[in-house]
Amino acid sequence: MYRIARAAFAAGLLSAFFVDPSSAQQASLKIGVLSDFSSVYSDIGGMGNVEATKMAIEDFGGQMFGKPIDMVSADVLNKPDIASTIARKWWETEGVDMIIDLPTSATALAVMELSKQYEKIMIVTDAASSDITGKSCSPYTAHWTYDTYANAHTVGSAIVKNGGDTWFFLTADYVFGHSVERDTGDVVKAAGGKVVGSVKHPLNTADFSSFLLQAQASKAKIIGLANGGGDTINAIKQAGEFGIVAGGQNLAAIVMFISDVHSLGLKLAQGLIITEAYYWDLNDKTRAFGKRFLERVKRMPTMNQAATYSATLHYLKAVQAAGTRDTKTVMAKMRELPVQDAFTDNGVLREDGRMVHSMFLFQVKKPEESKGPWDYYKLLAEVPADQAFRPLKDGGCPLVK
């Protein structure tokens, strides 16, 4: 069986020495989960990502090269400096082989710089900026679940085609929100629409009133929510209180999760067009994983949690197939092996670090259409990987020749 230890964050106690390479080769394989356990993104990842990692380790068999697989976890508090401090400690003194999750784009980009320094693998399953596999790409980073380009192209293009041709953005004021606004705005303009304005709000905002009033005053047909998690939930709830949809404007949640729909309830969320990489009721594999996760966590998995399971399992398969934990050898094997599991049956890891796969366009059901808890989506379309994700040649990744 795997062994689990929760990492304690104590910056003042960090050591400045490295693990001896010979002893590291004899140590157990160790995976570190850097997540948000206490803030705006805890529902979409958080302890659900820890449980998904445990499930992958169990399904793999719990051992690698005859030794138990270990796992540590820590809350980054959505701060890049804290994420970097913990990652440095894990890689320098605690023998962590791979770090997974990273709840925000800012934390992901910060830890990516360290992963290059230490030549260690990290897999991003929560953060969304398309820059992760674009201008900021790394030979040691895989981006697994979704990104702002994919979501913008699936949701944004569908809405513009249906007449939503003027947009105003409500944008979380950090890398992720800026990326969502940029990528979706590009889609809107390419389709002949117009972006009439935007307003930035701090992460984890409680009061959206002033921002929503500006969006309402813009008269845009579509108010694009360039945020996620608790911010998206609060914005939609408060938009209902302001009568924005009743007044003729519509909301577009560019990045939304089944946990958000669950928190909102179908009465508020009904009719929203969203994109996801995973939904528990798509097929036999997704249903089997969803039901196992539900038994353990008492909630259906988000796409990030299903992706964390997938990425962990794929990493372990690659280490086993490579016969070594050597970073470059394992990364090469991860690109060579197809990704086929409960998350996707058609995944491929590209040289820029983007794991490409089908995305799905859904509409949230009306309350009377739902057959029970977590029966929330109607499938509108499956979008193939080559249509959903940015073409390799267009990302600006220096690794791509």
From TrEMBL:
> Which spans of this chain does the record mark as coiled coil?
none
List GO BP terms, alphabetically: amino acid transport
Q: Which residues form the Leucine-binding protein domain?
A: 29-365
Q: Which UniProt keywords apply?
A: Amino-acid transport, Signal, Transport
Q: Which residues form the signal peptide?
A: 1-24
Family, similarity comment: Belongs to the leucine-binding protein family.
Spell out the PANTHER family in the cross-references. Answer: LEUCINE-SPECIFIC-BINDING PROTEIN (PTHR30483), PERIPLASMIC BINDING PROTEIN OF ABC TRANSPORTER FOR NATURAL AMINO ACIDS (PTHR30483:SF6)
- The protein's name is Amino acid/amide ABC transporter substrate-binding protein (HAAT family)
